[in-house]
Amino acid sequence: MSSAKAPSRSGVAIFGGPHLLRTLLLRESLIRFAGGEAFLVGIMVLADLFSSMWKLLAMEAPFVSVLLWVAEGVPAHMTEVLPIALLFGITLSLAEMHADGELLVICGSGISVQSLSLPIMAFAALIAGAMFFANDWITIPSSTARDALYASMTGQNGPGRQVSNIAILSKGGTFVYRVGSYDPAAKRISNVDIVERNAAGQPLSRILAPQATWAGDRWSFREARIFSSKENGEWTETRMKDFSRPELNEDPGSFGIIREKPGLMKTGELATSIRALEKSGLPSAEARTELQKRFSFLLTPLIVCGLSVSFAGLFRKNSLLMSLLFSLATATVYYVAQMLGALSAKTGWLSPALGVWSVSIVFLVVSVIGFLKART
Question: Which has the closest alpha carbon to 135: 71, 82, 98, 97?
Answer without folding.
Answer: 82
